[in-house]
Design brief:
This protein is globular. The longest helix has 18 residues. Helix content is 30%, strand content 21%. Helix 9 packs parallel to helix 12. With 482 residues, the chain is an alpha+beta fold. It has a domain of 240 residues: 2-enoyl-CoA Hydratase, Chain A, domain 1, CATH 3.90.226. Strands 1-9-10-11-15-16-21 form a 7-stranded mixed beta sheet, with helices on both faces. Strands 3, 4, 5, 6, 7 and 8 form a 6-stranded antiparallel beta sheet that branches. Strands 12, 13, 14, 17 and 20 form a 5-stranded antiparallel beta sheet that branches.
């Protein structure tokens, strides 16, 4: 197995990190596990209102298309309601929940007040948290893993409610923290434990309403669980950012890429992987991006360069909102280094929306030379969590006939706003990002739907119960038929 371990960045809703970590080793909760999170200093109404106004101002100033999915009057009405509601001191956690709603109301998947994952991590080091890992199949929620030991909540059991809040209401609450034009269920599943804590706070016990496979319903009361150090997060990819292995029968290789987070070693990993495929004349390659929430589009293009040596369609349209803040970001050159975008930003006045492809039309690129371009059959596995740069990769594959897409529609639409300018609220210290670009892929263009799989297939309750990878098994059957 070729493996490259990678650090996974904190959420910038390119979602460049999502996967499910294994459940941690159980240990008895310390006495403090039943306590609420340590109280933070209260924020006064004036500073909170100032921060909310700062957030609103940056959204309107920076965003390339802020009212794509929500009407301006709805946005302003929500802002006024939130502003008026900041009439008494609140702790930082509650102010975060309220401010997050304003950013999430855009429903663009990239503009958000950052999840306070550092605060969750600090709490979870010594305190118990929700012992369940979650899996969504559409809007229905199931137990993926259970650290409590309660046999009634085994994998595949449907969760109906938690602490008296039904699942539909929980999803709506999560959409107030991270949002897209449609519910991004896989994201909510892979951040379920963190988001429940962020939205509802700490609890010493959890009352779980459930429905068993036989249709019977019941309730289970389970204690908060203290996970082993660094195992309380539910979003880390299982073991690595990307890895490769040959499957036992030798007819296919499995390339799993859980993140497109920038990595200096990524190209060397790809070269080694595709050299192995070439040496063994492997007839089929499965690329698994079901847990890939995005990252750098450049890494996605690096993978494409090993699938074809012919020019391919990259994108159909590209728009950039130029601002002084964005110019400053590209001047620093630390996080935003794309040279083509930098030229557009620096050559145009602040306050303008620039058509980056005006006069040139859709972008067609010729990949760099590779010694081991793969010539076999390619199958790309996608899911609702396939987002941002990973969803762009799915479009590269589908729009250019580089392989077949298997699984679920990616959570990212083929026309979407992307990238982000980071900011910090001056009083509360909460950080947030505002999207500044809009990208249209080269085919199946839609503001509401992602690339459609050639072979639609989703996990089932039964596969959750058994731990089988039903989508991978289905793909292997497809390979066997060809």
């Amino acid at each position: 197995m070729i493996t490259k371990h990678g650090a996974v960045p904190v959420l910038i809703l390119t979602l460049a990190f999502l996967g499910i970590a294994e459940a941690g080793v159980a240990k008895a909760p310390p006495a403090s596990s039943s306590a609420q999170a340590p109280r933070e200093p209260l924020l006064a109404p004036g500073p909170m209102r100032s921060d909310l106004a700062y957030l609103r101002g940056k959204i309107l100033e920076q965003h390339s298309n802020p009212f794509l999915y929500t009407r301006a009057e709805e946005f302003e009405r929500l802002y006024r309601d939130l502003y008026r509601g900041l009439d008494r001191p609140l702790d930082k956690a509650e102010f975060y929940r309220r401010a997050a709603r304003l950013a999430a109301s855009l429903k663009d998947g990239h503009t958000l007040v950052d999840l306070r994952l550092d605060s969750f991590a600090e709490f979870a080091k010594d305190h118990g948290v929700l012992p369940l890992e979650a899996v969504f199949i559409g809007p229905r929620l199931y137990v993926g893993a259970n650290a409590s030991g309660d046999e009634r909540l085994k994998a595949g059991t449907e969760i109906l409610s938690i602490n008296g809040v039904d699942v539909a209401e929980i999803v709506e609450a999560y959409r107030g923290l991270i949002n897209d034009v449609h519910p991004i269920y896989d994201v909510y599943a892979r951040l379920f434990r963190e988001m429940f804590w962020l939205r509802y706070g700490a609890a010493p016990r959890f009352s779980i309403g459930y429905r068993s496979a036989d249709g019977s319903t019941g309730g289970a009361d389970v204690p908060a669980h203290v996970f082993a150090e660094n195992e309380f997060h539910s979003y880390l990819p299982p073991g690595s950012a990307y890895f490769f292995k040959m499957l036992p029968d030798g007819n296919a290789g499995l390339l799993t890429i859980n993140s497109f987070a920038p990595s200096a070693d990524f190209d060397a990993f790809l070269e080694q992987t595709f050299a192995a495929l070439s040496a063994q004349h492997t007839p089929a390659l499965i690329i698994d991006m079901r847990r890939n929430g995005g990252g750098s589009g450049r890494l996605a293009q690096q993978v494409v360069s090993y699938l074809t040596d012919q020019p391919y369609k990259l994108i159909g349209a590209f728009y950039v909102k130029v601002t002084d803040d964005l110019k400053a970001l590209y001047t620093k050159g630390t996080t935003h280094t794309d040279e083509d975008t930098r030229k557009i930003v620096m050559a145009n006045p602040a306050g303008t929306l620039i058509d980056g492809l005006k006069g040139t039309g859709p972008v067609v690129v010729t990949p760099p030379h590779r010694d081991h371009v793969y010539r076999g059959k390619v199958y790309l596995l996608t899911a609702n969590n396939t987002f941002s740069a990973a969803a762009m990769f799915a479009a590269y594959v589908k729009c250019n006939g580089l392989g077949k897409v298997v699984g679920e529609e990616p959570g990212q639409a083929t026309n979407f706003v992307a990238d982000a300018v980071p900011f910090t609220m001056p009083n509360s210290g909460l950080s947030f990002e505002v999207s500044f670009s809009e990208i249209h892929m080269a085919c199946e263009q839609s503001y509401y739907h992602g690339i459609q799989p050639d072979y639609p297939f989703a996990a089932s309750r039964e596969s959750i119960s058994t731990g089988e990878d039903a989508v991978l098994d289905y793909t292997l059957k497809l390979i066997g038929k060809r």
